[in-house]
Amino acid sequence: MVLPYGKQSIDDSDIEAVAAVMRGDWLTTGPVVDAFEDDVAKVAAVEHRAVSVTSGTAALHTAYAALELQPGDQVITTPLTFFATATCAMWQGAEIVFADVSADTGNLDPESVAQKITERTKVIAGVDYAGHPIDAPALKKLAHDNGALLLEDAAHSIAGSLNGVPVGSLADITTFSFFPTKNLTTAEGGAVVSPDAGLVDRARLFKGIGYERKPELMDEHGGWYYEVTSMGLNYRLPDVLAALGSNQMKRLGQFKTRRQEITDRYNDGLAGIDELILPAHREGASPMWHLYPLRIQDGRRRELFDHLREGGIGVQVNYIPVHHQPLFQQLGHTKGSCPVAETYAEQEISLPMFPDLTDAQVDQVIDLVRGFVGA
């Protein structure tokens, strides 16, 4: 049996929460969705209710739509991410500009971003790689000083914080993912949060197919009346999945604690090996570790990957640099343009990381890695 690199943590209370919705009257667009959105907003420490959607990708698309990206606008982002961070902006007509990452965290480097900003920059989109928060204060200042806004792709980092400020309150708009391998799950799902009521309203309108049912107009025309006021898509998260999310929220603190314990155990077991670089943890950051991104510097990442897979460990690589993908090569992006991110990606291998991972399983992974490097 292969030990997966990521896995959902489901208990009987999760199953009962979903079953209760199945027994009720609302499978979608009901009160459980509202409750889940309140739960997400509370964790993100934002005043306005979150906008739940059907996936992390839908969250990104919804956020870019709320930011009113137009053809010709530029979005500066990282190549060390799942490609949806970039492609969802492209769906709104934006041009993607890749900036490099910081060598320690793998997060978007403010100094590299500063070199790429133009008068057409509309959004800086940082990604909380592996669960470590971006340098939001520096990136937000860069954005605002240049008439742009900061989007934080927090697919990896719900319940994280930086200098005591929760992820969700650090940027102008933030997106979450609730895929099964993430830090809590709705099976498939995501959410958008913002301290800006206008951005939240536009996000909610977009994910709701772009139509409105205003009480005053319904009073005037009849209870059936609605108006299509803008383009949108049906990205509505159903109550069935929202119920799972709200119940998972009850254990979010436990999930975070266990992920930190696993990270600490890996760090202790793999310390002092010259070939390896362990995940960085900057002062003031409280990561929600989604990944354990180990780096091996001797050029043997493929060999280590195969060694661990053969040993029953389902490791992964996060990620192939986005600008190396054929789509982006066709658009004129070139290999070698983000050397720090490319080196990081050549060295990285994600070790198993999920709350139900046992200490014995962590030790099994450590032993296999140490045996490979001869430590």
From TrEMBL:
GO terms for molecular function: pyridoxal phosphate binding; transaminase activity. One of its GO terms (biological process) is polysaccharide biosynthetic process. The modification N6-(pyridoxal phosphate)lysine is found at K182. Pfam families: DegT_DnrJ_EryC1. Gene3D superfamilies: Aspartate Aminotransferase, domain 1, Type I PLP-dependent aspartate aminotransferase-like (Major domain). InterPro entries: DegT/StrS_aminotransferase, PyrdxlP-dep_Trfase, PyrdxlP-dep_Trfase_major, PyrdxlP-dep_Trfase_small. Keywords: Pyridoxal phosphate. Its cofactor is pyridoxal 5'-phosphate. The keyword Calcium does not apply. Transmembrane segments: none annotated. The active site is at K182 (proton acceptor). CDD domains: AHBA_syn (cd00616). SUPFAM superfamilies: PLP-dependent transferases (SSF53383). It comes from the Bacteria. The keyword Cytoplasm does not apply. Belongs to the DegT/DnrJ/EryC1 family. This is dTDP-4-amino-4,6-dideoxygalactose transaminase. It comes from Yimella lutea. The lineage of its organism: Bacteria, Bacillati, Actinomycetota, Actinomycetes, Micrococcales.
